[in-house]
Design goal:
The complex is a heterodimer.
Chain A lengths: L1 E9 L9 E9 L5 H11 L19 E4 L2 E4 L9 E4 L5 E3 L2 E2 L2 H6 L14 H11 L6 H5 L11 H11 L8 H7 L10 H5 L6 H15 L5 H13 L10 H4 L3 E2 L7 E6 L2 H6 L1 H13 L2 E4 L9 H5 L6 H13 L5 E4 L2 H9 L6 E4 H8 L10 E4 L3 H7 L3 H7 L4 E3 L12 H4 L1 H18 L3 E4 L2 H7 L7 E3 H19 L3
Helix pairs in contact in A: 3-5, 5-6, 5-8, 6-8, 12-22, 15-17, 16-18
Chain B lengths: L1 E2 L2 E9 L3 H10 L5 E4 L17 E2 L8 H11 L6 H20 L14 E2 L9 E2 L5 H14 L4 E3 L3 E8 L2 E8 L5 E11 L20 H8 L4 E2 L4 E8 L13 H4 L3 E3 L20 H13 L9 E4 L5 H7 L1 H9 L9 E10 L2 E2 L12 E3 L16 H19 L9 H14 L6 H15 L3 E2 L1 H16 L10 H23 L8 E2 L13 E6 L4 E5 L4
Parallel strand pairs in B: 2-3, 2-10, 3-7, 10-17, 18-19
Antiparallel strand pairs in B: 1-2, 4-6, 5-6, 8-9, 9-10, 11-16, 11-20, 12-15, 13-14, 14-15, 20-21
The chains are: A alpha/beta, B alpha+beta.
C-alpha cells in the first residue's frame, strides 16, 4: 500500500455556487488505477464523492474523467501521486459525473434495409475498427470544434461511417454526416490521442467520410478550388511574393564543418506565403552545420487534399515528391511545416527518413544563441504535437533563447481545411487562442507550423514567430554583442 | 407516463444487460414498456464485458442434439431439460435477430458467422466478434432499443418489487438523488444479471450485486440451485486491484495453454482428453489445486501462454486481452499471462417456466438471474445465448399477459420508505460491510466447501445483516439497499450450498463422500423461498 495525494473536482450544481477542488490523501495498492483511488476516497474519506463506473476493465466507457487535463478511463489509467481529477468537459451532474445521456441518444442507429445481406469479410474488417468504440465520450470532451460550432462530434462521425459501410443499413449516412458538420473537423487529432481504444478518428473516419462525400459531389466549393489550384500549379496556395524556391540555390553549404546533410521539403505555405520564415530557417541550419539540398521540382505534399477527402490526384503528387529526393540520393528529408511533415510521415511510403526541423536541430545540437529579453509562449501545432509526437524538441530550442510560459495545447482552427471552408469556426477557435495567449502575459508567440503562424497572426495581440526565426534573432544578438566587445 | 408520482406502464423491465434490453425490445410490441437501469443502459451489466462468444448451432455438421448434450453434460445434468431444449433450438434464431439488426460478428470467407471452439463442446459453435462479443451485442441491442418506443430510465435503482396481494404490480426505486420512485406495471421482468460481487475476487461489473435474487426472494419468489457459482478458471491475479478481471476462455479457445510454475501442462493430470478446453468447473479446480499444492506462480496463479501463436492471431482475435495486459506491462505476444480462478457466474437463480414466469404472478425473469438453464456448470458461450433466447421469451410473455387492475399497497410503500429512511440514521459505512462480506464469502463459500466453513460464513453474513448501514447523503441510499441485497444473495448461496450434500458441477463439498456421478445423483434442484427450502430428490431420466 502507498499513500497518494489526489486533487478532486467537487461540484453539486444544486447546492454549490461554483466548483471547488478538494485534496485527499488516499491509501492505494501498487498498480492501482485512478478508479481505485476514487474508491479509496469514497470508502474511507468521503462517501458523498460522486463518480461513475461499471465494468472496471476498460470495456463499458462509464468512467472517463480528466486526469491532469487529459481525458482517460479511470479504470485503466494508473493512479499517480499529485494527480488532479476532473470531470469530462460535458454538462456536470455532480462532481465527476457528467450527463452522457443526450450525447449518447444523439448517435444514429442502424435502420435495417429491406433486403438483408451479410457483410463480406472485407466489409467486416473495414467496420470492426470503428466498432470497438465504447462511447466513453473522451473524444467529445477533447474536441475543440464542437465547442465553437454545430458539430455532432468525433464519435458521431465514427458511427456514421460505420453505418455507411454496412450493407444492412439503408440510409445515406454521408449526406447526413455533412449536415452534422463533417467539414468542421480541423483534423487536430485530439480525439484520436485521447481515445482509449486508439480509434484513429480523423484519418480512419472523418477523412474517409469526406472522401465519400467527394464522390457524391458534396465537397465544399472552397476546397474544390484548392484541389483545382493544386492540379494546375502544383501548389495549394496562390503565390503573393517571390517564392522561397525562386530565391535560393539548390544546395546550401553550412558556414562551418558539415555535421549532416538533408533534403528540404518546403511546403506550399512557406514557399508561397511565408518565404522569409523558411529563409530564416536555412540560416539557422547553415549556422549549425547542416547542408541543405533543395530540389526545385517538389510540389504540394497533398495534405490539403487528403484532409478534405479529395484523393484522386494524390498519387501523382506523391510520386513527384518522392522522385525529387530519390533522384538526389537523399536519405533524410527535413520538413518545417508540421502538416507536410505529418503527411510525409504517415500518408507516404518514403524510401527516405523524414524529420521535422525541431528534431534535426535537437539531434545535432545547436550553437547557443544569445538570450533575448523576452517572455514567450509556445503554440503546439496539432500536426507536430499529435501528428508527429514532437513536444519537447521545440521547447528545448526555445528555452535556449527566451523564457517560456506554457499554455494549453489546443487547436488554433487553421487545419483540416477549416480556415478556407468554415472561416467563422476558424476565427472562433483563433479567438480562443487569443484568450489563452493573453493569460500567459507573454511578449511573443512562438510556433512551428506555417498554418498556425499565419492564422494566429490574425488572432493575437502580440507578434507570432517561428522557432527558427527566434533562434536566428538570438544569433544576430549574439553577433551584435560580439561585435560590440571587439576592440576597434 | 406519470400519475400522482407513479410511473405507469404495461411491462416494466428491470436491468439493462443483454437479457433486459432484449426483453424490453420484445415487450414493446405489446404495450408501453419501461426499462429501468441502475447504470446507463448499454454500459451496465456483464453482457458488455462478455468477451468470448455466443453458442449457436449454425452448421449442418453440428446439431441441436449435440449442443443439448454438451450443455447437459457440462451442467452435470442439473439443468432443466425443457429450458435447455429451448436454449439450443432458439439460439440460432436469436443470432439471426442480432445480425438483422446490424451486429458485426466475425465472418468466414463464405460470409457465414465464424465459430471457434470453447470448453466442453464437441463442435466449434461459439460465434464471436473478436474478444468483444458481448460489447458488439450490446451496441446492436441498444441501437435496436432506440428504434422502439421503450422508455429508458437510467441510473435508477430498483429496491423492491411492489405487490398487490400475491401479484407483483411494479417496483419501488430510488433515483440518483435518493428520491423514491414508484412504478406500476401489469407485468414485471427481472433481468438484473448475476451477483458474484459478493466474492472478494470476481469478474463482475459493479452491477453484479445480486439485486434480482434478493428482491425476487423478498417478494416471495422461489430460487433454485443458488449454491452453483461458477468460478471462471482464468482471472487476472495482479496488480491487486485488477485481481479477478476476466481473462476470456477465448484465449484457450484460440490455443492458449496452461502451465504451472514447473512448466508442466498440468491439465493432462485432470482431463487428458479435453485438456485446457475442459469445462470451467474442472479447469478452475485444476488451477486451484496446482496453486494450493505449491506449484503456482509468485503471484499465486498459473501461467496461461499464447506466445506460440502467430502474433497476428493474438492481435485480431484477442485485441482486448492484448490491450488490457499491455496496460499492466505484460505483452502477451511475448510472455505468459498469470491467472487464477475468479467468481464469475451464478448458475442458480429464480425458478422459471419455459415462458419465463417465476413462481409468483406478474413476475417474469430472464438471463443470469434465473436458474435451471445451466445446471451445475455453465458452458462458455451459453450465457450470451441465454440472454437473447430467454430475454425474448420473457418480453413476449410479459407483453402478452393481460392488463391488470392492481393497486399499489400503501402499507408496503410505507415500509419501504421507513427502511430507506433508517439508512439516514445508521452508523456503519456500507463499503466496510461489503469488504467483510466479500472476504467471508471467498474464504468460506469458494471453490472448495465444507459444512463447518459454510455454517461459519452464514454466521458472519447474519451478523453483517444486523449492522445498521449509514447513508452519508440521500444519494447514498441506493448503495445501502444494494448492500442489503448483496447480504441476502450471499446467504442464499450459502444456504443452497449447505442443502446440497454432494459435489456436483461447480459445487464441491469436500466433507461429503458420494458414490454417484451426475447421471445417477439422487438429488435435483435445491430450492429456497421465504416459505420453504430443501432439495428435490429422485434420479432424472
Amino acid at each position: 500500500m502507498k499513500d497518494i495525494t489526489v486533487r478532486v473536482f467537487r461540484f453539486d450544481p444544486e447546492n454549490d455556487e461554483k466548483p471547488h477542488f478538494q485534496t485527499y490523501s488516499a491509501s492505494v495498492s501498487d498498480g492501482a488505477r485512478v478508479l481505485h483511488a476514487l474508491h479509496a476516497i469514497h470508502n474511507e474519506h468521503d462517501p458523498t464523492l460522486s463518480y461513475r463506473y461499471c465494468c472496471g476493465s476498460g470495456q463499458c466507457g462509464s468512467c472517463a474523467v480528466r486526469v491532469n487535463g487529459e481525458p482517460v478511463l479511470a479504470c485503466m489509467e494508473e493512479a499517480r501521486d499529485g494527480m488532479t481529477v476532473e470531470p469530462l468537459d460535458l454538462p456536470i451532474v455532480k462532481d465527476l459525473v457528467v450527463d452522457m445521456g443526450p450525447y449518447l441518444d444523439s448517435l444514429h442507429a442502424l435502420v435495417p434495409a429491406p433486403e438483408f445481406r451479410m457483410p463480406t469479410p472485407d466489409e467486416v474488417e473495414e467496420i470492426k475498427p470503428l466498432r470497438s468504440c465504447i462511447e466513453c465520450l473522451a473524444c467529445v470532451s477533447a474536441c475543440p470544434a464542437l465547442k465553437v460550432i454545430d458539430f455532432a462530434g468525433p464519435t458521431a462521425m465514427r458511427q456514421e461511417l460505420r453505418l455507411q459501410l454496412d450493407p444492412r443499413d439503408q440510409q445515406d449516412r454521408v449526406t447526413e454526416a455533412v449536415g452534422e458538420g463533417l467539414f468542421t473537423c480541423t483534423s487536430c487529432q485530439a480525439c484520436w490521442k485521447v481515445c482509449p481504444k486508439d480509434i484513429q478518428l480523423p484519418g480512419k473516419a472523418i477523412e474517409k467520410l469526406r472522401a465519400l462525400a467527394n464522390k457524391k459531389g458534396l465537397t465544399l466549393p472552397r476546397h474544390q478550388d484548392v484541389a483545382q489550384l493544386v492540379k494546375e500549379t502544383g501548389r495549394s496556395v496562390v503565390r503573393t511574393e517571390t517564392s522561397f524556391l525562386e530565391q535560393i540555390p539548390e544546395v546550401l553549404e553550412p558556414y562551418g564543418e558539415v555535421k549532416g546533410t538533408v533534403g528540404f521539403f518546403v511546403g506550399c505555405m512557406y514557399n508561397q506565403r511565408l518565404p522569409q520564415t523558411a529563409l530564416d530557417a536555412m540560416e539557422v541550419l547553415r549556422r549549425n552545420g547542416i547542408r541543405v539540398i533543395i530540389p526545385k521540382e517538389q510540389v504540394c505534399c497533398g495534405s490539403p487534399l487528403i484532409r478534405t477527402g479529395q484523393v484522386d490526384f494524390l498519387d501523382t503528387l506523391k510520386r513527384r515528391n518522392i522522385d525529387a529526393f530519390v533522384f538526389r540520393n537523399i536519405d533524410t528529408v527535413l520538413t518545417m511545416c508540421a502538416g507536410c511533415g505529418s503527411t510525409l510521415k504517415h500518408d507516404y511510403k518514403t524510401p527516405f527518413k523524414v524529420m521535422d526541423i525541431n528534431e534535426v536541430l535537437t539531434k545535432y545540437g545547436i550553437e547557443p544563441p544569445a538570450r533575448l529579453p523576452l517572455k514567450a509562449t509556445y503554440h503546439d501545432p496539432c500536426h507536430l504535437l499529435r501528428g508527429q509526437g514532437i513536444k519537447n524538441q521545440p521547447r528545448e530550442l526555445i528555452t535556449q533563447v527566451v523564457d517560456l510560459i506554457e499554455m494549453p495545447a489546443i487547436c488554433c482552427g487553421s487545419g483540416g481545411g477549416v480556415k478556407s471552408g468554415v472561416p467563422d469556426e476558424a476565427a472562433a477557435l483563433g479567438e480562443k487562442r487569443r484568450e489563452e495567449i493573453k493569460k500567459t502575459g507573454a511578449d511573443i508567440v512562438i510556433s512551428s507550423c506555417p498554418f498556425c503562424e499565419y492564422h494566429i497572426r490574425d488572432h493575437s495581440d502580440i507578434p507570432v514567430k517561428n522557432v527558427t526565426t527566434v533562434l536566428l534573432e538570438g544569433y544576430r544578438e549574439k553577433d551584435r554583442k560580439a561585435k560590440e566587445q571587439k576592440p576597434c | 407516463m406519470r400519475s400522482d408520482d407513479v410511473l405507469l406502464c404495461h411491462v416494466l423491465v428491470i436491468g439493462s444487460g443483454g437479457a433486459g434490453v432484449r426483453a424490453a425490445i420484445e415487450a414493446s410490441q405489446y404495450g408501453e414498456t419501461l426499462l429501468v437501469s441502475k447504470t446507463i443502459a448499454g454500459k451496465g451489466g456483464c453482457t458488455t464485458m462478455a468477451e468470448g462468444g455466443y453458442n449457436a448451432v449454425l452448421r449442418t455438421a453440428d446439431s441441436c442434439d449435440i449442443h443439448f448434450e454438451d450443455t447437459m453434460k457440462g451442467g452435470a445434468r442439473l439443468n432443466d431439460r425443457d429450458l435447455v431444449q429451448i436454449l439450443v433450438k432458439e439460439a440460432p434464431e436469436r443470432m439471426n435477430d442480432l445480425l438483422k439488426w446490424g451486429a458485426v460478428f466475425d465472418v468466414t470467407t463464405e460470409c457465414e458467422v465464424a465459430q471457434r471452439p470453447f470448453g466442453g463442446q464437441r463442435f466449434p459453435r461459439t460465434c464471436y466478434a473478436g474478444d468483444r462479443t458481448g460489447h458488439e451485442m450490446m451496441m446492436t441491442l441498444i441501437d435496436r432499443l432506440d428504434s422502439t418506443g421503450v422508455g429508458v430510465h437510467n441510473e435508477i435503482t430498483i429496491i423492491d418489487l411492489l405487490k398487490d396481494g400475491d401479484t407483483v404490480c411494479g417496483a419501488a426505486a430510488l433515483d440518483r438523488k435518493g428520491e423514491l420512485v414508484l412504478i406500476k406495471a401489469d407485468s414485471t421482468v427481472i433481468a438484473t444479471g448475476g451477483g458474484t460481487k459478493v466474492y472478494d475476487i470476481s469478474t463482475n461489473s459493479s452491477s453484479g450485486t445480486g439485486d434480482g435474487y434478493a428482491i425476487g426472494y423478498r417478494a416471495g419468489a422461489e430460487l433454485i440451485d443458488m449454491e452453483q457459482v461458477q468460478f471462471h478458471p482464468t482471472g487476472a491475479v495482479y496488480p491487486y486491484d485488477a485481481r479477478g478481471r476476466l481473462v476470456t476462455e477465448a484465449v484457450r479457445g484460440e490455443g492458449g495453454v496452461l502451465k504451472n510454475s514447473l512448466g508442466e501442462r498440468f491439465m493432462s493430470a485432470y482431463d487428458p482428453e479435453r485438456m485446457e478446453l475442459s469445462t470451467r468447473d474442472v479447469v478452475a479446480r485444476a488451477i486451484a489445486t496446482e496453486i494450493l499444492e505449491g506449484r503456482g506462480t509468485t503471484h499465486a496463479g498459473v501461467y496461461l501462454d499464447v506466445t506460440h501463436l502467430p502474433r497476428s492471431q493474438i492481435e485480431t482475435r484477442l485485441p482486448v486481452m492484448l490491450e488490457q495486459f499491455l496496460k499492466f506491462g505484460v505483452d502477451i505476444r511475448n510472455e505468459p499471462m498469470e491467472v487464477a480462478p475468479t467468481a464469475h457466474h451464478i448458475m442458480g437463480g429464480l425458478r422459471i417456466t419455459t415462458q419465463c414466469e417465476t413462481t409468483i404472478p406478474g413476475l417474469y425473469a430472464c438471463g443470469e438471474v434465473t436458474g435451471g438453464v445451466h445446471g451445475a456448470n455453465r458452458l462458455g458461450g451459453n450465457a450470451l445465448a441465454d440472454t437473447q433466447v430467454f430475454g425474448k421469451r420473457a418480453g413476449e410473455a410479459a407483453g402478452k399477459a393481460g392488463k391488470k387492475t392492481v393497486c399499489i399497497d400503501d402499507a408496503q410503500v410505507d415500509t419501504i420508505r421507513s427502511t430507506v429512511d433508517n439508512y439516514m440514521k445508521g452508523d456503519t459505512n456500507p463499503s466496510h460491510v461489503i469488504r467483510s462480506l466479500q472476504t467471508a464469502m471467498w474464504e468460506g463459500a469458494g471453490i472448495f466447501r465444507t459444512a463447518p466453513d459454510l455454517e461459519k460464513t452464514l454466521g458472519i453474513i447474519s451478523h453483517l445483516s444486523t449492522i445498521r448501514l449509514k447513508a452519508a447523503s440521500p444519494e447514498n441510499l441506493a448503495e445501502c439497499c444494494i448492500v442489503r441485497n448483496m447480504l441476502l444473495t450471499a446467504s442464499l448461496i450459502v444456504r443452497g450450498a449447505l442443502l446440497r450434500k454432494e459435489s456436483r458441477g461447480a459445487h464441491v463439498r469436500k466433507d461429503v463422500t458420494q458414490a454417484w456421478d451426475p447421471s445417477s445423483s439422487p438429488y435435483r434442484h435445491t430450492y429456497l423461498s421465504d416459505r420453504r427450502e430443501g432439495i428435490e430428490t429422485g434420479v432424472w431420466e
